[in-house]
Every structure is written in structure tokens, then in C-alpha cells.
Amino acid sequence: MATATVISLAISVLALTVSLITAWRTLFRRGELRMTQPTVVFFGPDGGSRADDSSAKVFLRTLLYSTALRGQTVESMYVNLRRGETRQNFSIWVYGEDKLVRGSGLYVGHDGVAFNHHFLLPQDGASFPLSAGTYTLKVFAKRVTDTAPSELSTVSLAISDAHAAQLTTQDAGIYFDWGPDEQAYQAHVEVQPTPPLPPWLLDAATVATPRPPEADPPH
Fold it and tell me: Which CATH number describes the domain made up of 32-204?
């Protein structure tokens, strides 16, 4: 009888321990906000002409996830770009897929969320011209429960002299694609094509233009 009581008590203690661990993981454990290695990073103009440095942006694609079953609510994100002693915050955050929205709160669960993230310069006259050199890109995020932003990732990127020369072309930007085999980024420059004419303008162009009146035939 004593043995059965001990076994029953041990099973009860084990069940209680499992319940407490489960409750801690699901209800009480806060966990951390993390991000994966960005698969692509872009430096360049946000639409418009490169002559307007205020239109420059940093684009990246990554997965944000929570290390706990309990999710995280991101209040804001920004990136800091540094080259030598020059550094600049890109503080305007926009994210999404086909439909972009201004970043103003994002829930990140344990399974994670993958989005395209666009970071633009603030409208205060700041500029960050791209030239040859090594760049350090740091990604920061602030959760609603935090008092200050936390660094999520640091990425080192390099722009060669040849790529810097190409970036002087209007509407040119540079992409860095992550190579999982080499564990390094491969850079290439692209020039944004001229935006196509909108359909309504194409329709208007197909309307027959009135012909000018013909001159009277000579007598």
C-alpha cells in the first residue's frame, strides 16, 4: 500500500511539473524577438531620380520570429547605415508584400512572419550618397514592452569601385543577394526601368487626333 501511494504521489508531482513548464512556456515566458539573415538587401533610390538623395532607401527581406510561444508586438523598426565615420538612420519604416503599409505595429508569433521591409530617410534634409567602401547595416526594433530599441542584426556589405561608378547612373541601385553556400553577399547593380504609361493614358493616345484643315488648292 505504501508503494502504491509513493508511485501515485510521484505521478502527481510529475504531472504538476509538466503543467507548470507548459504554463511557463505559453503564458509567462516572454522570449526574445529575433530575425533571420536577410536574403536580399538593396541600397538605392525609392522611385524618383537619384538626384534627390532624400529619396534613398534601404530595402531588405527577412523573417521576424519570437523565441517563445508567446508572441511579440513590434512598435517600430529602423536601420542604421554606417560607412567609416559617416552614419545615418533610415527611420521611416514601410513593410508588406504586394500591398505596402506604414509600420505602426506588427505582431510576430512563434512561427514568424516574412515581409519586405523598406526604410527611408527622414524628411529633414538628410542624405547618404553611396560610394565605394565597407558598410555596416544594423537593424533595430522596439517592442511595446521595451523602453528602448534593441539591435536585431548586423550585416557587413561592400561596394566596389566598379559598382560605385555604376551607381552614379540615374535611378541605379545595388542589390546584395545572400549566398547560403558561401555565407556571403553577392552584389550587382540594376537600373530601374522607365515606368510604363498608365492604361488611361494609353487609351487616350489611341484616340484619333483631328487632322489640320487642308490648304485650298491653287486656282
Answer: 2.60.40.10
The residue among 151, 138, 195 whose CA lies nearest residue 171 is 195
User: What pLDDT does 125 receive?
Assistant: 62
Strand partners, 83: 86, 135
Q: What's the pLDDT band for 55 if we cut at 50, 70, 90?
A: low
At CA 77, angle to CA 74 and CA 83, rounded to 5? 155
The burial class, CB within 10 Å (0-12 / 13-18 / 19+), for 65 is buried
Q: Determine phi and psi for 208, rounding to 5 degrees.
A: -60, 130
Distance between CA 206 and CA 59 in Å, rounded? 38
Q: Which three cell numbers stand for residue 81?
A: 547605415
Q: Are 126 and 143 in contact (CB under 8 A)?
A: no
Question: Do 174 and 42 form a contact (C-beta atoms < 8 A)?
Answer: yes
pTM of the model: 0.73
Q: What is the pLDDT of residues 102-151, one digit of tens each?
A: 887 899 998 899 999 999 888 776 778 889 999 999 999 999 988 899 99
What is the pLDDT, as a whole number, of residue 128? 83
